[in-house]
């Protein structure tokens, strides 16, 4: 028993949690999304920059605009999920640093004066937060269906602006019929971990 | 109560979990690292590519080689943590895809024949896995001290090879005296989430 997290929580978040490919029509409420955010917002990022931004696609009009930008195999999932979220990185996150990192006012200009540095840092740290968000969806008893198969430039132009880079589109809901593919293998500890 | 994860687990993983800057000398065992890996290996990645690789810095000789590559403020933490892990992305992860994704043998050549495509995908998906790993460290009742302030090229040359890109160095252990800075603010829901 090397973990202190209780086994039911281990199962909920990792062991039994699976990427869902179909969903029931049970709605995902704003209260659920708020609770997920209020939990995972505490996940660590470098200099507390928290560059993840979330666009909830709720209206059928917006859903219709999103679907053509998804890859073929992802269109039906995107059409049927009760809620779809576009996750993006805010490349102008440094504007919030005086609020987010009041103890280190020098960081904004020291590391993030240039856009390429911001883009690299935003992409990495928003990816960390995307993973926390997936864990949070599962913490709400919901299934996540994260997708990277879509036209990123198309999604950016349709829903975001030049300052935001799409990272992932996530279907969210209760799993439907035949929601899960067979669990794929994972690499063994010795294939991943080296000790020096 | 929009979350089904029990409140103690919420606290352990997110609400009360904090980045530690000092550590006790209680060792982190191989069994703990194995348990963490065996939990978080199930976190989702695109096409199950799981490109994260972990280098555990256990010997004092290796620790001495790592410290000079850390930024000034991170050197003392890296020197004192019971265990330090270098997280990297394997840019040749596609070689494992026949094992990891047996149902889709075409993906390896379709998307990952070229190194730049692999590097982009590995960086993003290994970042997701780095976040799962941080959550897993907390699930083991330990504190993580993730650091991005280091000389990446120096660490790569010292510990890795041309096929691996360092992502993060993580101190792992039980928090010591004055381990935590005050909790920094987080952005509000309405600053992060837009509904369309």
From TrEMBL, chains A, B:
It comes from the Bacteria. Its EC number is 1.1.1.298. Residues 17-174 form the Nitroreductase domain. Keywords: Oxidoreductase. InterPro entries: Nitroreductase (IPR029479), Nitroreductase-like (IPR000415), Nitroreductase_HadB/RutE (IPR050461). Pfam families: Nitroreductase. It is an enzyme of class 1 (oxidoreductase). GO terms for molecular function: 3-hydroxypropionate dehydrogenase (NADP+) activity. This is Malonic semialdehyde reductase.
């Amino acid at each position: 028993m090397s973990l202190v997290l209780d086994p039911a929580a281990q199962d909920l978040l990792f062991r039994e949690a699976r990427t869902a490919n179909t969903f029931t029509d049970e709605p995902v409420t704003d209260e659920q999304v708020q609770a997920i955010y209020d939990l995972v917002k505490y996940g660590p990022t470098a200099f507390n920059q928290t560059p993840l931004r979330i666009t909830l696609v709720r209206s059928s009009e917006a859903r219709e605009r999103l679907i053509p930008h998804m890859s073929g195999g992802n269109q039906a999932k995107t059409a049927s999920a009760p809620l779809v979220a576009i996750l993006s990185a805010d490349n102008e996150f440094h504007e919030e640093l005086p609020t987010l990192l009041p103890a280190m006012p020098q960081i904004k200009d020291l590391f993030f004066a240039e856009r390429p540095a911001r883009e690299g840092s935003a992409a990495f740290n928003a990816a960390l937060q995307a993973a926390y968000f997936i864990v949070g969806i599962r913490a709400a008893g919901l299934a996540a269906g994260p997708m990277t198969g879509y036209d990123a430039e198309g999604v950016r132009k349709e829903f975001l602006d030049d300052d935001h880079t799409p990272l992932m589109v996530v279907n969210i809901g209760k799993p439907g019929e035949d929601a899960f593919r067979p669990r794929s293998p994972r690499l063994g500890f010795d294939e991943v971990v080296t000790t020096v």
